[in-house]
Amino acid sequence: MIKRGYPSMAATIYGVRSFFLLAAIVILFYGRYGGATAATRGYIKYKDPKAAVEERVEDLLTRMTLPEKLGQMCQVDRFNFSFFPPATRHEIFTKYLIGSVLSNPYDTGASPSKRVVEVNTMQKLSLSTRLGIPLLYAIDAVHGHNTFINATIFPHNVGLGATRDPDLVKKIGAITALEVRATGIAQAFAPCVAVCRDPRWGRCYESYSEDPKVVNMMTESIMEGLQGNAPYVADFKTKLAGCAKHFVGDGGTVGGINENNTVADNATLFGIHMPPFEIAVKKGIASIMASYSSLNGVKMHANRAMITDYLKNTLKFQGFVISDWLGIDKITTPPRANYTYSIEASINAGIDMVMVPFQYIEFLEGLTKLVNGGYIPMSRIDDAVRRVLRVKFSIGLFENPLAEETLVSEFGSEAHREIAREAVRKSMVLLKNGKTNVDKVIPLQRNVKKIVVAGAHANNMGWQCGGFTLTWQGFNGTGENIGRNKAMQLPTGKTRGTTILEAIMKTVDHTTEVVYAEEPNQDTSKLHIDAAYTIVVVGEAPYAETQGDSTTLSIAAPGPDTIRHTCGSGMKCVVVLVTGRPLVIEPYLDTIDALVVAWLPGTEGQGITDVLFGDHPFTGTLPRTWMKSVTQLPMNVGDKNYDPLFPFGYGIKT
């Protein structure tokens, strides 16, 4: 218990021994139960911003009850607060003392100012508790503030890997942090530092490259942008707490199957998958998220050897380890087959904060029983809470718990969109330019009589942004009809940005006729034989995680027919691939005059026409090996039998 000093009572009891003894008892009682005097009542070390972080952490930790500690280890979904009666939702913070909230990937955002108000409402409830420990609010922001309408959406990481431009990636991290902070949110579940070794994996677009050297370079840069060049956070007003994910080996699963087992010897583990996390730890990453996957048969959410022994004890990671969404549930097969065991195994392995996200009462009750029963030692609980508090103190959350609306004007600004446009054009990779060396197609002429633009991907904002945009699995079209119900709080209007078709129409001469054929047939080329060229935009439909796992890596229908009906007909044909990974393209290659990979470019489609029409050069190079067929996979640069269609690092410069 906490003992406080008191003014001397010598004037009253001096010389009277029995009175002195009685006074000592009284002092002890009041010191223990709150009877501080005016001289000492005002000073509480953990509330002193001038005190050292570790001293503040230890002071607060000694004051906390078990329920207060366990609440800091629990992260719940915002929907628990937004859609329950006031009395019930207030209890999340005042009764259950929850220390962290997240917005899930379906939480298509309100306007920034509305979210600031809601964040502050929750924060005030946290601050009203006995110790006033502020809430940590987190969200996925993996290619910009991607769950909020009208945010600046950047190319997904695979496209950024194609730029080989770490300074640009640092700027993107800084803009992402600024737009997230504009909505009152303090942490982003980014960066993803996976090294994808098999493009059949549905999360491969979240990886910068198959080459750990590229991933390492981008990890260092994006972290400086998100957190600043300091441990945890350099400036809490414009920066945020990052979260490196997913620890470790998620990009190396057998067959590229999401959440599968990664079989790796030490050379593979510590030479390919671990280095980005080592860099993140050295740069002061605030948190690290465990992977759903297994490593050599051991679920990462229960892997004490990796989480505690290596990450915490060997690398000296000082932040907190967080689970993925329902991550501890998946320790067993089927999930939640033995939830008590899942809690015990994950916490004892070193998980510090659990993303529950809804059944938090059951989680807290189970965790309490395991601690009281001696199955989880108090030292493990204190270590977890100490790490969470360390981050909260270090980022300045205790001094600045309430969000301000001063950054709202920065949200989706033109200056931010210009950086996104630059990222798009630098990520573009030219794989073919003419059927012969003297028959160049790109740069395209803009002052012609007629051109044809073909393919549904040319005019679909959702498809060019990919997964993790507005919703978990992305969206189809403009985003205008997403979340129109009150639950989503989505403002009226479509997602702000420029589709590829819109960018083409803005770029060509005003006298040029642009014919758009969303789904061309065999007569399209005959009807427009007088067109100077055709731009065919095909690729993948949006996906995320397991839904994106693919054994074929085929162009999505009707893409193959779109190519067949437009290319090889006599007109020059430029194919633009909108994709998160290499697709099987070799069967169509002979009929294609020029082939361009746009990856998943985000909202700023004008960056594509910047290079197609020669306003800027093509400089991007492949961050991944482009296979001839899926039977070659996995195939990565440096492999013994390396026979790609286009090798890692390939890209025609213009």
TrEMBL record:
SUPFAM superfamilies: (Trans)glycosidases (SSF51445), Beta-D-glucan exohydrolase, C-terminal domain (SSF52279). InterPro entries: Cellulose_Degrad_GH3 (IPR051915), GH (IPR017853), Glyco_hydro_3_C (IPR002772), Glyco_hydro_3_C_sf (IPR036881), Glyco_hydro_3_N (IPR001764), Glyco_hydro_3_N_sf (IPR036962). GO terms for molecular function: beta-glucosidase activity. GO terms for biological process: glucan catabolic process. It comes from the Eukaryota. The chain crosses the membrane at residues 12-31. This is Beta-glucosidase. It comes from Brassica oleracea var. oleracea.
